[in-house]
Amino acid sequence: ESYGGIVSPLTATFAQNLYAQVYKDLLLHSGVKKNTLQKHSAVFDNLIGTAYGRIYYRMENWHKFMSMLPGYSRNKANLEEMLTLNIRSEKSENVVKPTLWIRLVYYPLVIWKLLFFKKSMTILDKETSAILNEYHSFDYSSLNESEVNKHIQTLFDGILRKWYLTVENDTVVMTLFAALGKKKSQEEMAKILSFQSASTAQISALSGLAKALKKEDKLFVVLESESFENFLIALNDFPRLKVQLSEYKLKYGGRFANELKLETKSIDEDQNAFRSLLITYANSPAFEAVRQTENGLDFLSKTFQKFASRREHFRLHRANLFAIIRKLVLRKADIWLERKIISNRGDIFYFKWPSVIDKKTPSPEEIESMKLERKKYETYQKIDAPAFFTVKNGRWPSIKQDNELSFQGMGVSVGEATGKALVTEEFKIPKEPFDILVTKRTDPGWTTLMAMSKGLVIEEGGVLSHASIVARELKIPAVIGVKNACSNYKSGDVLSIDGKTGQVFKQG
Question: What average pLDDT does the chain have?
């Protein structure tokens, strides 16, 4: 979900590096000795990998790293349930059994951490917010190469060394979700899974900003008919609205479609898209977030909601931190462009992460590799890669174009809806009204588009994927896992969906 579709080599290797660091830190703070982590460093360095220009989990390495801690069988089953891709491994080979030391200290350590976990997450929240505030009005153009590297390294050695805490939070979510699923009915789980998150807070903020802009007729005319740059100039005469826009960007500036891909343009770079979004929301009914109710929920259910809501909150923080790293990378791209190391700004995304942050000048071999990657990625665009696959004895599966349409998916948000479909694999603000959004996958940056919908049909995802969470908050039906929906439906088709049974029908 976080890295759907084509992913640049820079993003893929950046993510690979970060995954390794975060999960090593996770085990280190769970009692695993440093020498054990060093011995199995290849496991952490390859938790994810790339194929066909896409990022995949390397499941055998996830099994190995999870097996280093007690409770492996339970955690493995919970993870497979969360992935909801029908991936089931009956037998895991080469697992690493926890040492006697880990078996003795692990559960007392878990209890100790849980006692102070709320405090730990509150501190992390404050520290992250302080960093985001610091970089909000930062002058990136003044940095030289050494300073760019220093800022990136400071983020990796500082706030991101504490990011393992968010994984611990996610582990609690995963564990409680599995426990509740065994005890609760489908109707009870639907109520438990309806909780407030940062995503609907963003929609409320965007709707409020857009409505406030529309009340100022002269300013809104500039927004509608002129460039965004002219709008920003005109906004200087409206200090209250200027502050409101600044506050929105501070909190949600890193939230956009494909927000974790370093190559994706932010709302500051793609100002026309943000302008269209503001106009669309200004001309739409005012959005009011559905208030969470805990009436009738037991302690376990309320605890799950708190941890799940926190998970979404820190996903927003993560997006904003990645936006800072993107700006630092682009500053280096501008420097390399001035030095004629690259021919255009976008070339930097076809280097690998160490080539960008470890040295001032890439080698001739690295430059040639970058050029080759660009050519390969043109080919990858033509491949409809599978959501998951198995490599046996070093042999990769052949890719077949499968156009068979499934009319049955997984209902993840109850309700029924019928209306005109918008079928799109890329985030875009539609020019024509629509009712049912149909796409392959979403990430949190799609929230603004989902809020315009009366129902969702998504090819990939699960009960706790972002689209499912937002759909339940918005009280709109959603069906996940409809095979080849984007290939077999087209924009303008009239679709009927049932978010309880998971069925999708085309009318006429």
Answer: 89
